[in-house]
Design goal:
This protein is of the alpha/beta class. The protein has eleven helices and 15 strands.
Length: 393
């Protein structure tokens, strides 16, 4: 089976490449992936497989049934949305949609899964059970397409024994993958805070409420939550990337807007920090005599890779790729809406190395010059298909 899958994956390389390049040229933003879904549906329908769209507006689900299809189910997931980035690459497959780009590798994920479907379809008489394949919208935008699909009943209807997803990683050499058991990626929350006071002449601070000074103090005090409140053994990040105080050298504005992100690897401490932020803002605002609006927008949860499932996946990956090509990863403070699946079903989320320094393919995710070493498309679909069948045994 392994040899057959490897051969099929390699034989379908040209088709996989064409799909990836088509998707890269025609990226669509979160919750707007209508043309992407239609393109995928055309190929899937040509195989005689079902098209299921009831779980998300722009999502697509299909299945490959083997012998005794009700015996066991596995779910493979790929995200299909792009980012609001103007591409700067000079390649034949450069984005044709101005200001939109597949700068996170979702085109690779989608093309890999589509070819994995073709492989599994050819092998459907050689395995028992059902492989469900989900092309999920809106990974890049809260509340996330994964949540939308789960809330619509996807996992209850399918009841998979495992959910498997992959993600490109440019700082891992092409030809290798990486994975980590247990907590792997952080939760992510967005903080929106507006300080409201009485602005005026900067030379007359006694006649106004200094919204700028209060804002600076709040940023410092909230940063101290991480160093003085959260235990050192819980990875935590609190960062503020946007401060808007539309005054002047001698004008204190009536309002200051602050926006930031809070991330952690512990759901319990996540809730406590939310409460602590609220307490600090209330206390400091009262002391300055200002009002405020605070919104902590609840984002994706912590991503948890089931240790038993990871162990099983890792063994098959070593068998498929060789032990030297399967790496152990550290935790990441970035986030992924795949995390929602991991709180419902044993899950495996791994990284597909796509970097190649010799070819100059080194730009990071979410970069306007992000690209991948397309040679990984020779084996990436096969790895997905092989993993799915491993969990059907």
């Amino acid at each position: 089976m392994k040899s057959n899958i490897k051969a099929l994956s390699n034989d379908l390389f040209k088709e996989t490449l064409e799909v990836r390049r088509y998707l890269h040229k025609h990226p669509e933003l979160s919750f707007n992936e209508t043309k992407t879904t239609a393109y995928l549906a055309q190929t899937i329908e040509s195989l005689g497989l079902p098209i299921i769209t009831k779980y998300a507006d722009t999502g697509l689900v299909t299945k490959i049934e083997g012998r005794n299809p009700s015996k066991k189910s596995v779910l493979l997931r790929a995200d299909i949305d792009a980012l609001p980035i103007e591409e700067q690459n000079e390649v034949d497959y450069c984005s044709e949609n101005k200001g939109v780009m597949h700068a996170c590798g979702h085109d690779v994920h989608t093309a890999s899964l589509l070819t994995a479907i073709k492989i599994l379809f050819q092998l459907k008489n050689q395995f028992e059970g059902t492989v469900w394949c989900v092309f999920q919208p809106a990974e890049e935008k809260l509340p996330g397409g994964a949540k939308q699909m789960i809330d619509s009943g996807l996992l209850k209807d399918i009841q998979p024994v495992v959910v498997i997803g992959q993600h490109t990683m440019p700082n891992i050499e092409a030809g290798k993958i990486g994975i980590r058991a247990g907590y792997y990626m952080a939760s992510t929350d967005e903080i929106y805070l507006t300080i409201k006071g009485k602005g005026g002449h900067a030379a007359l601070p006694h006649e106004i409420t200094d919204t700028v000074l209060l804002s600076s103090e709040l940023i410092v005090k909230m940063q101290q939550i991480v160093s003085r409140f959260v235990p050192a053994f819980i990875p935590t990040v609190l960062s503020f990337g946007k401060v808007m105080a539309n005054g002047a050298t001698n004008i204190i504005p009536d309002e200051v807007r602050i926006e930031g992100t809070f991330r952690t690897m512990n759901e319990g401490w996540r809730k406590k920090v939310h409460k602590k932020i609220e307490e600090i803002v209330q206390l400091e605002s009262d002391s300055f005599g200002t009002d405020f609006d605070l919104e902590i927008r609840h984002g994706y949860p912590v991503l948890y890779n089931d240790p038993q499932a990871v162990d099983r996946f890792k063994k098959q990956a070593i068998e498929f790729m060789g032990v030297e090509n399967v790496l152990d990863l550290d935790i990441r403070m970035t986030a992924e809406d795949f995390a929602y699946y991991s709180h419902e079903v044993p899950s495996v989320f791994y990284r597909l190395g796509t970097g190649n320094k010799a070819k100059g393919i080194t730009f990071p995710l979410h970069s306007s010059k992000f690209d991948v070493d397309e040679e990984v498309m020779r084996f990436a679909p096969g790895l997905l298909a092989h993993a799915a069948l491993t969990f059907l045994l």
